[in-house]
Design a protein that fits this description.
29% strand; alpha+beta; 7 helices; globular; Double-stranded beta-helix; binds succinic acid; single chain
Length: 295
């Protein structure tokens, strides 16, 4: 069920903004990204993004890669994904998240995000946010779930908050990649790729640079251990944090519609792609906005 849909007005645009009846998420209808937004309208969209708690769905965006990239760049410079083989030819800012096989080869990263994660948390400067644009969606499955990591932090028992206070955790792209390497989409990483993604440490609780609120910043995809803690203690505590986040209390599950763009905030959410039956096509374009050092 959805709540009311107030209109947001700027000098040159009027659009609907509606929060979902969920711990996070909201949608905008009636905004056309095929032409660049003026600064006031972009500022209004950015406000909606913050108000959404980290997941903003922009409905019915019939735009091409250039417009997708231009809109994404309004949030900041874009990252180029380390898996270069899955970038859209001519538009390296776009990662193809696709299960489509063409001439016997995968055109995109078909198994992207099948574990809870925050995009690029394995970099020293993880992503601010990602914009995933639906090109082809399956009749069945293909949903993406998101967790509100502000709410997950707030709901932690005080004893756990004390245990993680001021602590850092290690994030590694390679550990997860090596675990799933060998599939159609995952040939072994080259030495150059490995060097692009050394392990990094980040605070377990970060303060969102725009909202000023605290959010948990660990994810089972990339967070491998808690720094300066015994291995036993880390192996006990990290899975507890993961299952606390993903138990379902802080989750919104997105069922894709044609031409949706979903913009999520990697600083205060984690997400999971549920996958779809392999015979159904799912083809998406993702841009990833660079972020800052978590603090
Ligand atoms: C991703 O993690 O970027 C992929 C999400 C999805 O395909 O739903």
């Amino acid at each position: 069920m959805q709540t009311t849909a107030p209109r947001r007005r700027t000098a040159s645009a009027v659009f609907e903004y509606r929060s979902f009846d969920a711990p996070l998420g909201a949608e905008i209808r009636g905004l056309d990204l095929s032409r660049p937004l003026d600064d006031e309208t972009f500022a209004a969209v950015r406000r909606c993004f913050l108000d959404s708690q980290g997941v903003l769905v922009l409905r019915d965006q019939r735009i091409g890669p250039e417009q997708h990239i231009l809109f994404s760049r309004r949030f900041g410079p874009l990252a180029i994904h380390v898996l270069r083989q899955f970038l859209l030819p001519g538009h390296p800012e776009i990662l193809l998240v696709s299960n489509v096989i063409k001439d016997g080869r995968p055109v995109g990263l078909g198994d992207a995000g099948r574990y809870w994660h925050s995009d690029l948390s394995y970099l020293a400067e993880p992503s601010l946010g990602s914009l995933l644009h639906a090109q082809e969606i399956p009749k069945e499955g293909g949903d993406t779930s998101f967790v509100n990591m502000y709410a997950a932090y707030l709901a932690l028992p005080a004893s756990i908050k004390r245990r993680i206070e001021g602590r850092r955790a290690t994030h590694s792209y390679r550990k997860t990649y090596d675990r799933i390497a060998g599939s159609t989409y995952r040939p072994a990483l080259t030495e150059a790729q490995k060097q692009e993604v050394p392990e990094v440490d980040h605070p377990i609780v970060r303060t969102h640079p725009e909202s000023g609120r605290k959010a948990l910043f660990v994810n089972e995809g990339f967070t491998t251990r808690i720094v300066d803690m015994t291995e036993d203690e880390s192996d006990e505590l990290l899975p507890r944090l993961f299952s606390h986040c993903t138990a379902g209390h802080f989750t919104y599950r997105h069922h894709w519609q044609e031409h949706d763009i979903v913009l999520w905030d990697n600083r205060c959410t984690i997400h999971l792609a549920h996958g779809c039956p392999p015979e159904l096509r799912r083809h998406m374009h993702r841009t990833t906005v660079k972020g800052d050092i978590p603090r």
